[in-house]
Amino acid sequence: MSKIVILTGAGISAESGLGTFRDEGGLWSQHRIEDVATPEGFARDPELVHRFYSARRQQAAEAQPNAAHLALAQLEQHWAGEVVIVTQNVDGLHEAAGARNVLHMHGTLGGALCAACAHQWQAPMEMTLATTCPACGAQQARPDVVWFGEIPYHMEEIISHLEEADLFASIGTSGQVYPAASFVQEAAANGADTVELNLEPSEISRAFGERHFGPATEIVPKWVEGLLTGSNA
Asked: Of the residues 69, 94, 104, 106, which is catalytic?
């Protein structure tokens, strides 16, 4: 196999201390998704949304990549073909682990976006209503994160990679968020082998030809080692 396309979700970063939508006691459990992860929520209470994402930005800045992130970076470095990581995560831990070929379909916590002119720039650690766009000067800065109801980034490029993939892997995803949940069907329709690596079966687990369950820090390094040594079945 020459081209591997890997989709990662919140589950790969959970062991780095970054909570998922469904974790109890984390940042997400304190707010409704509709209030902090939609354009409508930002329009209703931008100050709340800025506080929420500033907290997430600080949390992500303090997090360290775990063994699963490091294993994928190693795969990218040593695989003879191409490895593309498509991530739903906004935390930047793939890059912190050393990965370079990463597509952030949901944006990044480290980015800021001007709602007035669409300029993108590096976000300060704490964004507020007073944060101004360096391009147009408008005080309409928002996190450069794709919210529910918005179109993910890089979709044409992602679909192109899925059409060319020899192997598609989904790691740490729930299978509940589209369009990412449809990627396995897209890859399989074009002849790719498919594998799910997850803590437990996802909503779309049966769509995969191969499945491995357990903590990401255990199953991902083992899977990568198998690919690099040729011992995977």
From this structure: 106
